[in-house]
Amino acid sequence: MTILMFEATDARVSSRDNTSQHVKGARLMDAISVLTDDHHKARGLFTAFRAASEADDAEQMGSVAEKIFEELDTHTAIEERVFYPALKEAGGSDLEELTDESNEEHHVVDVLMKELKEISPSDPAYPAKMTVLMENVEHHAGEEEKEMFPKVRNIFSETQLKELGLALHREKHVYRLENKSVDELHKEAAELEIAGRSELDREGLVSAILSEYDV
Question: What digits encode the pLDDT tens for the residues 56-74?
């Protein structure tokens, strides 16, 4: 088995927007804890959407749906960019089969999200289509927690899982910043009081912000 090592640094997360919190010296979560926490967040949002749907509140459904899409987009990105490649590198036919299946499930979710983004929450078909999305995600998350994660814990050491967790944490920041406009990046750089920010291009802003968060 190939030993995977990731450069460890102190974990800090940003409080500058609603997607993260700046916590110096925060307890470092291992990879499985990071992903399981994401699953719990998604389930909480699903509960909120169902409540809005039962109340026939299209505005609230739309608001919760945006949060669901953001959460799922980020979670999918860090799994596909960091977690699944690490599992494939570690080897083992069982893990490879599970990651291939998970990638296919991601594709189905991506298609459903794309379709949902093209219609209004007031459309009668919206709650039904969102229900299909939520059921797919719940199946995917449950399968990972029951089948994939126990296998991962048997293959990776505690240190490796924490290093992989840090890599996932960093990729969340990277993905979040990638999806910001240059103006939004300048605003975040200003909030962080980054010197010389007015002279930085997009790449420079992203690099400077990541350095500020020590990820």
Answer: 999 999 999 999 999 999 9
Q: How far apart are the first and last CA of the chain?
A: 27
Report the C-alpha gap between 209 and 187 in whole angstroms. 11
**Domain identity same for 56 and 143:** yes
Give the pTM.
Answer: 0.80
Digit-coded pLDDT (tens) for 197-208: 889 999 999 999
In this structure, are residues 121 and 59 in contact, taking their beta carbons and an 8 Å threshold?
yes
**Domain of 99: which CATH number?**
1.20.120.520
For 214, the domain range is 180-215
Return the closest-CA partner of residue 50 out of 135, 116, 115, 120: 135
Instruction: Give the integer Cα–Cα distance in Å for 116 and 125.
Output: 9
Q: Which tokens hold the place of 69?
A: 């899409």
